[in-house]
Amino acid sequence: MENNLTSYVTGDGCIHVKHKSGLDIYIAEMPGFSSVEALFGTKYGSINTMFRQRGDAEYTVVPEGIAHYLEHKLFENEDCDVFELYAKTGANGNAFTSFDKTCYLFNCSKNYQDSLRILLDFVQKPYFTKETVEKEQGIIAQEIKMTNDNPEWRVFFNMLRAMYHEHPVKIDIAGTVESIAQINAELLYKCYYTFYNLNNMVLSVAGNVKAEEVLAICDECLKPCEDKGLETVFPEEPDTIVTSEIRETQPVGASIFNIGYKCCDCRGTERLTKSVAASIASSLITDASSDMYQKLLKDGVINSSFGAEVFCGDGYFTVIFSGESEQPDIVRDSILAEVGRMINSGINENDFQRIKKSTYGMLIRELNNVEAVANNMINSHMDGVLPFDAIDTLSEMTSEDVVDFMKREFRSDRLVLSAVEKEA
Question: Which is the catalytic residue, given 2, 29, 37, 71?
């Protein structure tokens, strides 16, 4: 089944196909562009440690970090190295595991058909042995130790641990040295055949491609999969935070902070609408022309690193303010005061329109970026929305919508300060 998806605001479009194998395929033909970006992803990330399939009486619980471990191992084929194959076609291959997805990708300027065959082939051919699995444990253990020494990583995960009581988003994507020691070939195969079922996966291709060529290669390479009714579940998470403040000292050049609001979880279109409102709200607060920003800058409390982001997924949603400061308490109190002012007095309409237009311009620019288009298609599908829904949602957003969001979600009793401070 083939659908043409189009934004009613910009007129841009892409093709969505539900392939007979069970795979969802998104293709954006971008004539005039020289490059191609392709991602083959599964809705399987570090937070998916508890799951079952249709017919299972009990949930399976697996060690933390196994999704990331599996990503590493899938590049090892029985008879060849995937990167050597890409080298012959001139493509750059890579992969990543996040909290809620794992993606294998390549970009190239020629021979995209051969590179696409490589991508579809190796992701469907797992090969794990006791020896190769054990070899990887030392490599990933070193990776974990390195990130544990990274101050930006520390301040971020400390904030999540201060926010979330039970949700696995508070655990490092790579797991812990102890958890990965429990991983074996049998567990990897179980997770692979559960989550790498094509009914749980997406292929996204954008750039100098022809849809009929992409679909012909899919017909050639994809192996039909039975939908096994995968169900993931998370521990029940209270609305409250664990603690409002967490600090540690490290040998850093400048003290850094994350200040985050723990917001209510939601999914699909509701999450997208909330994300757009949260993005505008946080942009208004960190706006370099605002009185708050200028005062903090003049007083030497912040520098130009001060910014914000919306971080959300299945079971978690938070708005994070970050930067460098020796006085993060003042930054936190200033944010609380600014939020209170906006809720009580409303948002200046000129400021709102400026931020909205700036955000809209960023989204429009991304439509002319092959990598951004491919990523947007796969991310949107996994989030349960359509590729152009963000632009359409933003176009309808009002300043009153943003204030309503702040009233509901920017609660002082759900605010966390995490700081990594330099040694005295």
Answer: 71
